Amino acid sequence: MKPLHVAAALLIAALWGLNFTVIRLGLDVFTPFTFAGWRFLLGALPVLFLPRPPISWRALAGIGFFMFTGQFVFLFFAMQAGLPPGLSSVLVQLQGPLTVVLAALFLHERTRPAQWLGLGVALIGVLVIARSVEGSANVLAVGIALLSALSWAVGNLFLREARGAPVFAVTAWASLLPPLPLLIAAALTDGIDATLSPILAPSWQGWLVLFYTVVPAMWLGYLIWGTLLRSYPAAKVGPVSLLVPCCALFFASQIVGEPIGGVRLIGVAIVLAGVAIGIVASARRL
Asked: In Å, what is the CA distance from 55 to each residue of 4, 34, 43, 45, 229?
């Protein structure tokens, strides 16, 4: 990679890593449905000037429902249930190995033994992490985070139809679909006042969180990511995703004091090793 692109890749890792801690702070202000609904409502604003990317509405709906709505709603509920942001960032990385499994089951793609090995190693790490958390709520939160990773993996199958389309445009147009059902769910479960809290009871923390999760994390992040994918093979760009949980763990430890050590650190290392094995094995197929 060119030095400028290396710097851009490191910036993405930092932006997306910090995003997990920002989400945790956002859940002190918003309920999960409200947070997700407003995030995607604001995230869809570029559709006002961006043409629809040349992919089907079916693909956009799949990306919007699984990669966006499912991934983030489950993630928000997992973190609300007590899962720390650093661990959340590690567990959702299972989307990589899970995508391989789903593609083999539903798209009949051939897989390498090393890809299955990577998934197996990562799942062992999940079990170690689950043993390191305290209380049934946190163990339940681990399970919810795995549903987030699974939903992301399903969304990846729809994302394949968007190959060659501008990533930023796909992100904006797919964000157009989640807000209405999310805000309706928020109104039904949390009430109108909570749903409209960014307007009825605005706070600097709430709007700062929304700004960060939309502008740097979504718009800037996917704009840079799309640029890297157009400039280099996916096999070269993909490993950057392993830096995201490393950054997330660092920011979470510094900002919210998330403890990482002992058995938990071993579990994190095992999960990331499994994901790395899967990435290497997938890269060799390209």
From this structure: 30, 29, 19, 19, 18
Report the predicted TM-score, pTM, of the whole model to 2 decimal places: 0.88
| Calpha distance 264→283 (Å, rounded) | 29
Tokens matching residue 83: 């899962």
Q: How far apart are CA 222 and CA 215, in angstroms?
A: 10
Give Cα separations from 105 to 102, 108, 235, 242 (angstroms).
5, 6, 22, 25
Question: What is the rounded (10 degree) CA torsion for 34, 38, 41, 45?
Answer: 180
Say how far apart CA 87 and CA 260 lie, in whole Å: 9
CA-CA distance, 253 to 13, in Å (whole number)? 16
How far apart (Å, rounded) are the C-alpha atoms in residues 188 and 247? 36
**Helix, strand or coil, per DSSP, at residue 81:** coil
Residue boundaries of the structural domains of the chain: 3-284
Distance, in Å, from the CA atom of 29 to the CA atom of 206, rounded to the nearest integer, reads 6
Take residue 224 and report the two structure tokens written for it: 């840079």
Place of tokens 């309706």: 184
- Residue 78 CA neighbour count, 13 Å, CB half: 28
Angle ∠(73,68,133) on CA atoms, nearest 5: 40
Grouping H, G, I as helix, E, B as strand and the rest as coil, residue 189 is: helix
Q: How many residues does the chain have?
A: 286
For 22-67, what is each residue's pLDDT tens digit? Answer: 999 999 999 999 999 999 999 999 999 999 999 999 999 999 999 9
Question: Distances from the Cα of 166 to the Cαs of 112, 113, 229, in angstroms?
Answer: 30, 33, 10
